[in-house]
Design brief:
Blueprint: E1 2-6, E2 9-13, E3 15-16, E4 25-26, E5 29-34, H1 38-43, E6 53-57, E7 62-64, E8 68-69, E9 78-80, E10 82-88, E11 104-111, E12 114-115, H2 116-124, H3 130-133, E13 139-141, E14 145-146, H4 147-150, E15 157-162, E16 165-171, H5 179-187, E17 196-199, E18 207-208, E19 214-219, E20 225-229
Bound molecules: manganese (II) ion.
The site of manganese (II) ion has 7 residues, from loops.
Length: about 230
């Protein structure tokens, strides 16, 4: 974490390590894709005819791999969601699907940590999702593997283990909006910049995390993401 001096003290700039490089990737925004795998929509009793959508988490919710995540306040149903994360490397608005992958700097593993009880309460009352999704320490992200060093690992599987037990294991190809579609659609709504992370949605198998849990998310070829819940 780098800090800059300000009139009220020091401000930490969220950033991530990059595999094979000394320089870090400074994080500007965190976008997330919701309901992007059919099997996950079904397990949440969602409408399979509704398209995916986007929401955000604050950039300072980033947690580094290997760190400890405090069990959050105000919830009794704290869930893990393993997701592939896109790191944007080139600015663009209204990006065509055909050239969308040219805007990807690299990929990482992410956990879209969720206060499921608050998310469900917000949804039932038609309120924004921030209480369920955008809390402190809600965005663990692993090291980024740049495309020029690892390509686009979109034909692989994503998995999550909880204390060594496999809870999630699905093909990234099962995304409803694939990576080019996510970039094309999001860039129609918000101009994308280097430093923007996009969580691509979680497959089925989400569940509650408990204090003391070790969570590990992996995609073959990407740096593993591990966190412990305190
Ligand atoms: Mn998610």
């Amino acid at each position: 974490m780098h800090t800059i001096p300000t009139i009220y003290g020091e401000l930490a700039v969220p950033s991530l390590p990059v595999a094979g490089q000394d320089q870090r990737y400074a994080v500007r925004r965190i976008y997330c894709t919701g309901k992007n795998y059919l099997a996950h929509v079904r397990e949440m009793n969602g409408d399979v005819n509704e398209p995916p959508f986007f929401f955000q988490k604050p950039a300072d919710a980033i947690v580094q791999s290997g760190a400890t995540v405090p069990y959050p306040p105000a919830t009794r149903d704290f869930h893990y969601e393993a997701e592939l994360v896109i790191a944007i490397g080139r600015r663009g608005a209204d990006i065509p699907r055909e050239s969308a992958l040219d805007h990807v700097y690299g990929y990482a593993l992410g956990l879209d940590l969720t206060r499921r009880d608050l998310q469900n309460l917000c949804a039932a009352k038609q309120l924004p999702w921030e209480a369920g999704k955008a809390f402190d320490h809600s965005a663990p992200v692993g090291a980024i593997r740049p495309v020029d060093n690892g390509g686009h690992p979109l034909d692989r599987r994503i998995s999550l283990t909880q204390n060594g037990v496999v809870r999630q294991d699905a093909a990234l190809a099962d995304m409803i909006w694939d990576v080019p579609a996510i970039i094309a659609r999001l860039s129609q709504s918000c101009e994308l910049y280097p430093g923007d992370l996009i969580f691509t949605g979680t497959p089925e198998g989400v569940g509650p995390a408990q204090r003391g849990d070790e969570l590990a998310a992996s995609v073959e070829g990407l740096p593993e993401l591990t966190v412990r819940i305190a």
